[in-house]
């Protein structure tokens, strides 16, 4: 059995489809946990606290918070996965273009991946 471009396109479609469903389940679970633990608290909108941390510090806190079943961390995990889903699609598209030996689309995809990685790294690194 050979691996064809159609097979990879099915995988890409499944990643997008099931990725969104997984994000929905994670976010709803985190939201329910957050409301159970913090639903009675009063929100003070007059005080805004900016989160001025690097993305790597935030991800580290999110992983440890999710391990402790903190609702806010689980919600953030879902949001992070939501952003990661199209990036995974880009990586799979790059593999598809490499298999097709389509140099123009390989170049364009590598440039887009480079821009995303650069903007995430320099946009959040302080």
From TrEMBL:
The entry's keywords: Membrane, Transmembrane, Transmembrane helix
Pfam family, one: DUF1634
Domain of life: Bacteria
Residue stretches spanning the membrane: 12-36, 73-92, 104-124
Transmembrane recorded as keyword: yes
Protein name per its UniProtKB record: DUF1634 domain-containing protein
Source organism of this protein record: Paenimyroides ceti
Organism ancestry: Bacteria, Pseudomonadati, Bacteroidota, Flavobacteriia, Flavobacteriales
């Amino acid at each position: 059995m050979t691996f064809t471009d159609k097979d990879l396109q099915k995988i890409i479609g499944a990643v997008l489809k099931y990725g969104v469903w997984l994000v929905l389940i994670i976010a709803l679970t985190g939201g329910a946990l957050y409301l159970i633990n913090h639903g009675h608290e009063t929100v003070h909108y007059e005080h805004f606290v900016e989160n001025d941390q690097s993305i790597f510090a935030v991800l580290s806190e999110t992983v440890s918070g999710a391990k402790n079943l903190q609702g806010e961390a689980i919600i953030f995990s879902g949001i992070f996965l939501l952003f990661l889903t199209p990036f995974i699609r880009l990586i799979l598209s790059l593999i598809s273009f490499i298999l097709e030996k389509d140099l123009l689309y390989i170049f364009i995809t590598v440039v887009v991946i480079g821009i995303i990685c650069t903007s995430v790294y320099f946009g959040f690194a302080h």
